[in-house]
Amino acid sequence: MFGSFTIVPAIDLREGRVVRLRQGDFARATVYGNDPAATAQEFEQQGASIIHVVDLDGARAGEPRNLAALKAMRAAVRCALEVSGGLRSMSSVEAVFAAGANYVSLGSATVLHPEFVRAAAQAWPGRVLGSIDVRAGRVAIRGWEQTSSLTMEQVALGLREAGVSALIVTDIVRDGTERGVDAAASAAFASRCAMPVIASGGVASLADIRALSVLFANGVVGVIVGRALYEGLFSLAEAIRAAEPAARAARKKQKH
């Protein structure tokens, strides 16, 4: 899925619109557009190979709520779509795949229904990722509105045993704040869990992209970028170029 370090732009959906939340707070949402398909097209034109799509309404409801927007995005772009939010049953995963997703990431289900995660990973090998959203060292669930008693290490172990292909790890305190990333923490966690990790939360500059991109060999295979792109701190094309030296090195290493 990730042959080299990958920049993954995010499209968060709420009532069919493109939004971003600050620290996962639904009361602190900023609307960036009414046409998710057009946003997806713009990202693809700038070089996106995969887009992270979050159904925020689905995350709260426990089942997909923005399938029409997902179908519109699928019709508009050829790049891969990785979708999360409200996926807590086999039927919900089937619905999202039918609407055009290439991959899904499971969040709350990893805590609430671990047996379902295992079944999904077996049914769709290589297409199911685990999503670990962390607040104060504990894993948050149900659209980040509740916090479980589990640590990220405990959840990661269960996900590895379930057979997911990679982990998306979101630092909720940093998410949507442009505070910068904790590259060292991402690398340390990837090493501890022995799985590919996609970092998420807090990206504020191209320096953050570079700091993470050199960690590909440590297991940090990509980064999800949201508000920084929408606020114009840098473009997706600029982020991809910033990561290219590390990506080139990874490709060279793979050849040898």
Structural features:
alpha/beta, 256 residues, 8-stranded parallel β-barrel, 11 helices, globular
Mind sketching the topology for me?
Elements: E1 6-14, E2 17-22, E3 25-33, H1 36-45, E4 50-55, H2 56-61, H3 67-76, E5 80-84, H4 90-99, E6 103-106, H5 109-112, H6 114-123, E7 128-135, E8 138-141, E9 146-151, H7 152-162, E10 167-171, H8 183-193, E11 197-200, H9 206-213, E12 220-225, H10 227-230, H11 236-255
Parallel strand pairs: 1-4, 1-12, 4-5, 5-6, 6-7, 7-10, 10-11, 11-12
Antiparallel strand pairs: 1-2, 2-3, 7-8, 8-9
- The level of helicity is 40-55%
Q: What Rg do the Cα atoms give?
A: 16 Å
Shape: globular
- Count of helix runs: 11
Query: How does the major sheet shape up?
Result: 8 strands, parallel, barrel
Can you walk through the features of this model?
- The protein contains eleven helices and twelve strands.
- Strand 7 and strand 8 form a beta hairpin.
- With 256 residues, the chain is α/β, with parallel strands linked by helices.
- The chain has an eight-stranded parallel beta barrel, surrounded by eight helices.
- It is globular.
- Helix 1 runs parallel beside helix 3 and helix 6 runs parallel beside helix 7.
